[in-house]
Amino acid sequence: MIENYNKIEIKIIMGDDCMAKNHKDISMAVIRRLPKYHRYLKELLDREVYRISSKELSLMMGFTASQIRQDLNNFGGFGQQGYGYNVEELYKEIQKILGLTTNYNTVIIGSGNLGQAIANYTNFQRFGFKLMALFDTNPKLIGMKIRDVPIFDIDELQEFIDENKIDIGIICTPKEFAQDIANKLTKAGVSAIWNFAPIDLKVPEDVIIENVHLSDSLFILSYLLSNQEE
Question: Does position 11 have pLDDT exceeding 50, yes or no?
């Protein structure tokens, strides 16, 4: 989860009319639902569905129609009474809200199985997340390339960040090394960290961190599976 705040201050530019909500406090609960809107709207566009009501959208997503309207009203609202939502316009606006119209330079620290899997996931680049380099301590990996992206020695991290504008550091190391890597990234001026190490990292207040614990979802699945017949 994002550790530094429960609400995020953002500026939203709305469509061609440039209607803006400046410094609007949006709860993280709403922010965390936006990627799901983005995903389902893309599926609708792929099926050539260009218009949808909040009720129809609620049946797809598992949210109530009221919840959908409340969520979208945080950003000024997008629906028209009697018409519903223009799927393409709503998809584009949510892309803007999520910052997916901006390009971000990223690096991966830890080039093992998980780091390589993330490096090979091409969808990230499609949404503007450009992988600039990977780093590791394993001499067998240093010098290799993944999709033409080089793996460098971890000792070169500071210099690389100094020479390239890196926005996001992705940590895929064992947990005993993760905090030290986070310290190096923040010291070098990286403003956001996506952490896959199984530890909640501590960073300065001006650095955004998303701690992703893959086992959490599996444990929830285990709970539901073990209690499904009760």
Answer: no
71 shares its domain with 110: no
Residues 142 and 164 placed together within one structural domain of the fold: yes
The model's pLDDT over 179-219, given as tens digits with 9 standing for 90+, comes to 999 999 999 999 999 999 999 999 999 999 999 999 999 99
Residue 112 annotated as part of some ligand binding site: yes
Q: Which domain holds residue 45?
A: 7-97
Q: What is the CATH number of the domain that holds 50?
A: 1.10.10.10
Q: Is 228 domain-assigned?
A: no
What predicted TM-score, i.e. pTM, was given to this entire model? 0.83
110 marked as binding residue: yes
In whole angstroms, give the CA distance from residue 198 to residue 178.
9
Q: If we measure between CA atoms, which residue out of 221, 194, 193 comes closest to residue 207?
A: 193
How far is 77 from 70, CA to CA, in rounded Å?
A: 8
Number of domains in the chain: 2
**CA separation for the pair 175, 97 (Å, rounded):** 32
Predicted pLDDT of residue 230: 59
Answer yes or no: is 169 a known binding residue.
no
Residue 23 shares a structural domain with residue 44:
yes
Q: Is 76 annotated as a binding residue?
A: no
113 is in an annotated binding site: yes
Phi, psi of 131 (to 5 degrees): -80, 120
Contact between 31 and 41 (Cβ < 8 Å) = no
